[in-house]
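Section 5.1 Outputs to date
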Amino acid sequence: MSVWTLYEVFVRSKHGLNHKHVGSVHAADAAMAIENARELYTRRSEGVSLWVVPSALITASSPDEKDPLFAEVTLDDDELNIYQQVYNKFTIDAPVPDLVIYLQAPLDVLAERIKQRGNPLEQNISTEYLGALNDAYTQFFHYYDAAPVLIVNARDLDLANNRDHFKQLVEYIVTVKSGRHYYNPVPVL
């Protein structure tokens, strides 16, 4: 008896929006996973795009590592000191991911993508705050060494709308086993 792979399913409900995780399916291969996911999650034409990714290839970022970045950008020195004391008391020993992927882009690209995404909660983010947050992430990943890191130059990538960009990145991701790597896609002329 063969063991089927567990795939995570992501659906984009309409053009311009992000793909959202909607559930999982078991399948013998990716083509079968797409068919199973289409049958289970888009039966009534709920989505315009469907992704399936083997669960074993996905590691979510830990909020424990991301929260301090936001704290450093948004809190004053006294508040940050209190935050760090509480944070240090409540941190857990979370499992180390197999790979950390950092999508890096210049500030103007990030601002344009936020605008295009159209999420009302993000539309009033100031350029100064976005720049400080971008700098904090760059600093964090410069020193991060708990797991292999892939830093992706996402300036010219459109992972949400261009299947070739997504496919090329995934093909590169599966080759990364250890260390720090940089993915700079070659522009198509």
